[in-house]
Amino acid sequence: MTHWWRHAAIYQIYVRSFADGNGDGTGDLAGVRSRLPYLRELGVDALWFNPWYASPMADGGYDVADYRAIDPLFGTLAEAEQLIAEAHGHGLRVLVDLVPNHCSDRHTWFRAALAAGPGSAERERFWFVSGRGEAGELPPNDWTSYFGGSAWTRVTEADGSAGPWYLHMFAPEQPDLNWEHPEVRAEFEDILRFWLDRGVDGFRIDVAHGLAKKPGLPNVGPAPDITDLPYQDCDAVHDIYRSWRKILDSYDGERVFVGEVWLPSAEQTARYLRPDELHSAFNFDFLCCPWDAAALRGVVDDTFAGHAPVGAPPTWVLSNHDTIRHVTRYGRADTSFDMGDKRLLDPSDPVLGRRRARAAALLTLALPGGVYVYQGDELGLPEVQDLPDALIQDPTFVRSDGTDRGRDGCRIPLPWQADAPSLGFSPAGAAAPWLPQPGDWSPLSVSAQREDPDSFLTLYRTALALRRERFTALPEALAWVDAGPDTVCFDRADSFRCVVNLGADPVRLPVGARVLLSSAALDDPSLLPRDTAVWLER
Asked: Fewer beta carbons under 10 A from the terminal one: N or C of the chain?
């Protein structure tokens, strides 16, 4: 039996920017429901929804105030239940984002903790710690937030006095939960059951490596070992996932966990993918890899080597809601990606970026394992790099004093209709989209690309159909073929070959092979041009 999640094509939906159904300029569940036929026709197997929970939106919904309610921006719980059922009717599985490392400062637990005061039981669910210095005026340790600045904020008590500090590895509006507390464990086990009972097929776990902290919350120090940081990848996290896995496996229908696991070594990541923990994890090494043949081959080899000991399937991803869209990355002089230095304003050649992104799509969809498609990848959307400062909503912009322009540029509302207001994102007469769409996106819309045989959308639809038809039954293995130092070339079984030319000179294709699909036109059917990928039937 082949498990669906080992080879699934999963489409990521950032609800706020996917489709607006009620005309308020913000994407919502009604908008998603109206576009389910599009997703079915695209050819994906499952949908992953970024957080749709009740939230003040200090971090785009990753600051959750109520894990059992839908934010009114997006709709209602009843609409979510309808969406899940309708997606299943279209043959699409549904994964929802789970945010267990932290909640919102508006969550009832945190508000109760602030009101209860020092030493209270309510504060034990979080990390409230006395500060250093004579009057506790210094943070408890030297940890820094992923969003910039200190990871600690000091509390002002009800009587106006300065209190202890609370931990937030992200924004101050996102206090970290204390996973040593049994009530935290019990609460999230109940949250899992709440959504599983409503038919979701699994969960994408946010910051999956970060829930547990080292006892005593020790300093990082001036020269830290990045493989042994006190706020991530602590051994206690694995017991959490083993308990979760028992809950998941008690439900019918092959429910799954997907981990967001950003760690420096394949060995560390593999521990999360043991048979009694998570099913799969995002392959960030592949996403961050430059457009370089040797580097790509190395990442693929390392991925297989790291996953083999635990029997987990590899996954492949080019973009997501936190990263620079790969159409833009691949048009740069430096095509790599680093979350710590996104280089948001680096110039990019759009023609080169689109050509390489098309080739990268065929490479990604040909590899064994699962694959993720971020909304707009199939349209060839670029990063929007010129958002005015006043419109940027990502908290990293403020926390970094403007040195990091944030992630809003990859979250621009999708273009659906070339000649419609807001490019069809909202119905006629609606409010302006919550983030502005570029004036030159009309040719990138779904309507402009749907019937164009050479469009990004047609490439993705054709590739996904061929992948489902021909690849999912093949073994999870590949055999490298030496086609030159600047190529990525491999066979799957005896019938299929993928060739990607990343070099300056054309690559000769094997005689007698039939072209199934090419990322660009082949003027000479025997030669593969630069920055082009081809699928061959041998």
From this structure: N
β-pairing, 280-281 vs 256-259, is parallel
Rounded to whole angstroms, how far apart are CA atoms 532 and 519?
Answer: 6
- The model's pLDDT over 329-375, given as tens digits with 9 standing for 90+, comes to 999 999 999 988 888 889 999 999 999 999 999 999 999 999 999 99
User: What's the residue count for the chain?
Assistant: 538
pTM for this predicted structure: 0.97
Cα separation, 296 vs 118, whole angstroms = 52
C-alpha distances in Å from residue 491, one per residue of 27, 218, 366, 368 = 41, 49, 10, 11
* Bridge partner residues of 162 (DSSP): 156
Q: Which two tokens stand for residue 148?
A: 């910039």
User: Rounded CA gap, 125 and 467, in Å?
Assistant: 46
- Does the annotation mark 206 as catalytic? yes
Q: Are 396 and 34 in contact (CB under 8 A)?
A: no
**Cα 226 to Cα 245: distance, rounded to the nearest angstrom:** 28
- Which one of 45, 59, 97, 206 is the catalytic residue? 206
Alpha carbon of 88 to those of 33, 293, 357, 459: distances in Å?
A: 12, 39, 30, 25
Residues forming a β-bridge with 508 = 527
> Tokens 């000649």, residue?
419
Q: Of 471, 488, 478, 495, whose CA–CA distance to 8 is shortest?
A: 471
Convert the pLDDT of each residue in 272-305 to its tens digit. 999 999 999 999 999 999 999 999 999 999 999 9
CA-to-CA dists, residue 220 to 130, 226, 227, angstroms:
18, 10, 12
**Dist. CA 210–CA 151, nearest whole Å:** 13
Please give the Cα distance from 315 to 368 (Å, whole number): 8
Q: How far is CA 365 from CA 7, 15, 202, 242, 359, in A?
A: 10, 24, 22, 31, 10
pLDDT digits (tens, 9 = 90+) for 39-78: 999 999 999 999 999 999 999 999 999 999 999 999 999 9
Which residue in the list 260, 377, 378, 408 is annotated as catalytic?
A: 260
pLDDT of residue 523 exceeding 70, the answer is yes
